[in-house]
From TrEMBL:
<dbReference type="Pfam" id="PF07715">
    <property type="entry name" value="Plug"/>
</dbReference>
<dbReference type="InterPro" id="IPR008969">
    <property type="entry name" value="CarboxyPept-like_regulatory"/>
</dbReference>
<dbReference type="InterPro" id="IPR012910">
    <property type="entry name" value="Plug_dom"/>
</dbReference>
<dbReference type="Pfam" id="PF13715">
    <property type="entry name" value="CarbopepD_reg_2"/>
</dbReference>
<keyword id="KW-0798">TonB box</keyword>
<keyword id="KW-0675">Receptor</keyword>
<keyword id="KW-0813">Transport</keyword>
<keyword id="KW-0472">Membrane</keyword>
<keyword id="KW-1134">Transmembrane beta strand</keyword>
<feature type="domain" description="TonB-dependent receptor-like beta-barrel">
    <location>
        <begin position="415"/>
        <end position="839"/>
    </location>
</feature>
<keyword id="KW-0812">Transmembrane</keyword>
<dbReference type="InterPro" id="IPR039426">
    <property type="entry name" value="TonB-dep_rcpt-like"/>
</dbReference>
<dbReference type="Pfam" id="PF00593">
    <property type="entry name" value="TonB_dep_Rec_b-barrel"/>
</dbReference>
<keyword id="KW-0998">Cell outer membrane</keyword>
<comment type="similarity">
    <text>Belongs to the TonB-dependent receptor family.</text>
</comment>
<dbReference type="InterPro" id="IPR037066">
    <property type="entry name" value="Plug_dom_sf"/>
</dbReference>
<dbReference type="InterPro" id="IPR036942">
    <property type="entry name" value="Beta-barrel_TonB_sf"/>
</dbReference>
Length: 896
């Protein structure tokens, strides 16, 4: 027996035998066992399964107890009994060998010698002889893109045959704790070639790894989510991660892929329709979503009323969406967090890529400033889309003009192995001229300065200084009524985040942040010959939102993991003018009792509270998991709007003297299943969300330039619940997903004292974003290495609207309309089919320019989907469709 064990150990060292679950034979228990000695079980099952079992009697494994049912996997259950006690098993040639793992590692070390014929096959980590082969040592390093040397965030590394695995952090850094010995390190990242690296761990040391993009080596695109097993293994519930290659698989509208549109095709995420900016997550409104681009807050997610994303797809590394609060390091919104991470520039070579289309063009240039140390990437887009509006049937639209531009610049500098600096900037402007008299502008600016420092292999610090600004401007040039109206919001933020890797199964994140808001609530200035109006300026407001958090990610067992944390936030309303209203009267100009004026830095109001977060994942097996979560979030700023989509007349307002912050509690439960080696995945997730102090407006409210706006706003309760289903195919010629969501979003505004501050009699009613049924189908079929076809189909229930149900008319007096209760009717259902055809250039290894032609057909069957239904003063209804016909587009994308 000793010779057999030595022989098998030698085979294991040579890489012929690995104790992997995926290579285990299908052995199952033949009977039930309850608190039965392990040795008894091994004796009975070895006979029943016709296998041989080897172990040393003096190890005392007869004390281990087994509980199993007939039909359960035998080897998996035996491992569960042995591994917590420091033992393992090896299966080879119908022999099951129980291993004393520390003893095995000692044996491995004894085989190491300068003349070991296997030595050249392994990469050495550490120096000298291990002091104690039974104690783990640290293996750390960076995983980077082999092409441009940029860090790969979220790349996974696993020591095969062990439970020691992790993913890289923001700088591409990882750290593992391993016993001295020989391992095969499995390294992978979505869209990159997987690497298996044999290593020989002697002592604490480093291992830096470069991965190469599959599109570079194979000259083709592999479409996959960021880790195909991510849905099952991800520890945070409600998290969606989409790599840029998956985004590019969607049909392009007007020749450009859209990361926001790719998210809208997933369950639980929707939009109002064509011509609308913003998106809705689990029944929330667009102002409840936190949008981050390289840590900077972006207040408008789209260009040209939603037809283009605010994020340049050529610069995006990945997109992460939390359909809830997310980990405790995020805060400030009650619906979702969208985190868009931009690439670092190529630190080795100069590259250029872009696209030329019928509506817009874009160009991105990147390269080293100092090779492998300092890099830059700069990208810009511009549109020339006036001709598009000429195709619209609405006379006001075809007499209009529209355009946009945006520009990104990012510089990354690796000072040394422990310090990395980066600067990321963004600016954009949208312009829409309506019927040749009124011009609307949206302007965004953002900048982030970051410093990452590694104190030790286990402790990382990231510091960021962030600036964001959003301005909305409306200009009318008709001489008798000429005016200029503008509003906006400005942010300054500083934050410090720490990440401490306790060990491979335990990570602790903590940090502090402070965010200053400056609110421009609107100003009106008459222009030219307008003598009918007087200038109006609403007093601005300021706010300071500070927070500290701690978030713990802990694997209790290999199957059970817990991500929990708490965020404590405090908000100070600074400055502004506020009105005190009589308690026994509804808020109005007539009920004002006093006016309170605070200087710019004076505290007018203070709010604070804890925001606990909890996400639990249970791996039923390697292919199936259950997840449940609870999130509490607080939102101190409010988007004031009387439209269903983000528009130029919307503005942001601070919580304050008469306006409370919104507080949301969300509960989720889901099941996730993969099969056929992660080729297919299916998931079902249910959620319930209750939001207190959401904001809406009274009937007949005045939103713009209203000094007593607080009196026209009401706060109440929101409820949202639903079930989300997703089926996805990740590999093969045909890839894509089918998503379905059943959801409800309702609101309730009840003031028992005043009917004026009650909506719909205080009963629950559908919100503007209540669409019970939502279906999306996304398919990509590669007919060859050069040609592919993409399809996108979307269907949803029509959104709620308020309509006149009767009217009164007397002689020549125009009709007086009597409206239904709010949101009691719906526009017709929405559905649309898009197709996209991509032809890549010929596959030549050293070709100077690699390009592709993209033909897209938006709204293939010309569905006249309603943007909304409007009513004339006499009560006549008419439907507005932004795109009521098929819209073709051709573009050429290139890379040099």
């Amino acid at each position: 027996m000793h010779r057999l064990l030595v022989f098998l150990f030698f085979l294991a060292l040579c890489g012929e035998v690995y104790p992997q679950n995926s290579e285990d034979p299908v052995l199952r228990f033949t009977k039930d066992y309850t608190e039965t000695s392990l040795t008894t079980v091994l004796q009975e099952e070895s006979s029943a399964n016709s296998i041989k079992v080897f172990y040393k009697q003096d190890w005392g494994i007869e004390a281990f107890k087994v509980n199993a049912a007939a039909g359960e996997p035998l080897l998996e259950k035996i491992r569960q009994v042995l591994e917590p006690n420091g033992y393992g098993i090896l299966f080879y040639a119908n022999n099951l060998i129980v291993l004393n793992q520390p003893g095995l590692e000692s044996y491995k070390y004894e085989q190491w010698a300068d003349d070991d014929p296997l030595l050249d096959q392994f990469m050495l980590i550490g120096e000298g002889k291990p002091e104690d082969a039974t104690k783990p040592v640290s293996v750390s390093g960076y995983i980077r893109d082999g092409g441009d040397n940029s860090p790969l965030v979220g790349a996974s590394i696993q020591a095969e045959g062990t439970d020691q695995g992790t993913v890289t952090n923001y700088n591409g850094y990882y750290e593992l704790q391993l016993l001295p010995g020989r391992y095969e390190m499995q390294v992978q990242y979505a869209g990159y070639e997987r690497q298996n690296i044999p290593v020989q761990v002697l002592n604490t040391g480093s291992l830096d790894i470069e991965l190469f993009n599959q599109t570079v080596r194979l000259e083709e695109v592999t479409i996959s989510a960021l880790g195909q097993e991510e849905g099952v293994s991800e520890k945070v519930a409600g998290k969606e991660v989409i790599g840029i290659e998956a985004i590019k698989s969607l049909p392009a509208f007007m020749g450009e892929v859209d990361p926001v549109r790719s998210l809208i095709s997933l369950p639980g995420i929707s939009s109002v329709g064509e011509g609308t900016a913003g998106y809705n997550v689990r029944g929330g409104d667009p102002g409840q979503n936190l949008l981050l681009q390289d840590h900077a807050i972006i207040y408008n997610s789209a260009h040209m009323f939603g037809f283009f994303s605010a994020f340049n797809p050529d610069l995006i590394r990945d997109v992460v969406l939390y359909k809830g609060g997310g980990p405790a390091n995020y805060g400030g919104r009650v619906s979702s967090v969208l985190n868009v991470n931009l690439r670092n520039g190529n630190a080795k070579n100069f590259e250029a890529n872009g696209g030329i289309g019928l509506v817009s063009s874009r160009l991105t240039i990147e390269g080293p400033i100092k090779k492998e140390r300092t890099s830059f990437i700069v990208g810009g887009r511009a549109s020339y889309s006036d001709w598009l509006l000429k195709q619209m049937k609405d006379p006001n639209l075809y007499q209009s003009a529209a355009s946009f531009y945006d520009l990104n610049l990012k510089v990354n500098h690796v000072h040394d192995q422990k310090n990395v600096f980066n600067l990321s900037t963004y600016m954009s402007q949208d312009r829409f001229e309506f019927a040749s008299d009124t011009t609307y502008y949206w302007k965004s600016k953002a900048a982030t300065l970051g410093w990452s420092h590694i104190f030790s292999p286990n402790l990382l610090m990231q510091t960021h200084a962030v600036f964001s600004n959003y301005q909305s401007d409306i200009q009318n040039r008709e001489s008798a009524f000429a005016f200029d109206y503008n509003s906006g919001i400005t942010n300054y933020q500083g934050k410090v985040d720490f990440s401490w890797t306790v060990n491979s199964s335990h990570k602790l994140d903590f940090g502090i942040s402070s965010l200053y808001y400056g609110f421009d609530l609107g100003s009106f200035e008459p222009l030219l010959n307008n003598e009918n109006e007087e200038p109006v300026e609403i007093s601005g407001e300021q706010g300071l939102e500070s927070a500290f958090y701690i978030n713990d990610e802990f694997s209790i067992t290999p199957r059970l993991s817990l991500v929990y944390g708490v965020r404590f936030s405090n908000y100070l309303t600074l400055g502004g003018k506020y009105y005190q209203y009589a308690d026994d009267q509804p808020k109005s100009v007539a009920s004002i009792q006093d006016t309170l004026v605070y200087s710019k830095n004076q505290i007018a109001k203070s709010f604070s509270g804890f925001e606990p977060r909890l996400s639990l994942r249970w791996l039923i097996n390697s292919n199936t998991s259950l997840k449940t979560s609870y999130y509490r979030t607080r939102q101190y700023v409010h988007l004031i709007s009387n439209t269903t989509a983000i528009s130029p007349v919307d503005f942001w307002k601070s919580s304050g003297y008469n306006l409370e912050p919104s507080i949301a509690d969300q509960y989720t439960f889901g099941i996730f299943r993969n099969w056929r080696d992660n080729m297919y995945e299916v998931s079902a997730e249910a959620y319930y969300k209750k939001t207190d102090q959401i904001v809406d407006y009274k009937d007949g409210a005045t939103i713009l330039l209203n000094e007593t706006l607080d009196a026209d706003l009401v706060q109440g309760e929101g409820q949202a619940y639903g079930v989300e289903f997703l089926f996805r195919k990740n590999r093969g010629k045909l890839t894509g997903w089918l998503g379905y969501t059943y959801s409800r979003s309702k609101r309730k505004f009840l003031n028992e004292m005043f009917d004026e501050e009650t909506i719909n009699g205080g009963e629950l009613y559908p919100s503007n974003y209540d669409k019970p049924h939502d279906v999306s189908l996304v398919l990509n079929y590669k007919t060859s290495r050069r040609f592919s076809i993409s399809l996108n189909f979307a269907y949803s229930t029509g959104r709620p609207i308020t309509v006149p149900v009767s009217k009164f008319q007397y002689e020549d007096i125009l009709s007086v309309l009597n409206y239904s209760e709010r949101n009691q009717f719906r526009v017709p259902d929405y559905h649309r089919l898009d197709l996209s055809f991509t032809l890549k250039s010929k596959l030549k290894k050293d070709k100077l320019i690699n390009g592709e032609w993209v033909l897209s057909l938006y709204n293939v069957y010309g569905r006249k989907n309603p943007y909304s239904v409007y009513f004339s003063q006499r009560g006549n209804a008419f439907q507005l469709s932004i795109l009521g016909s098929i819209f073709p587009s051709l573009s050429y994308n290139f890379r040099i």
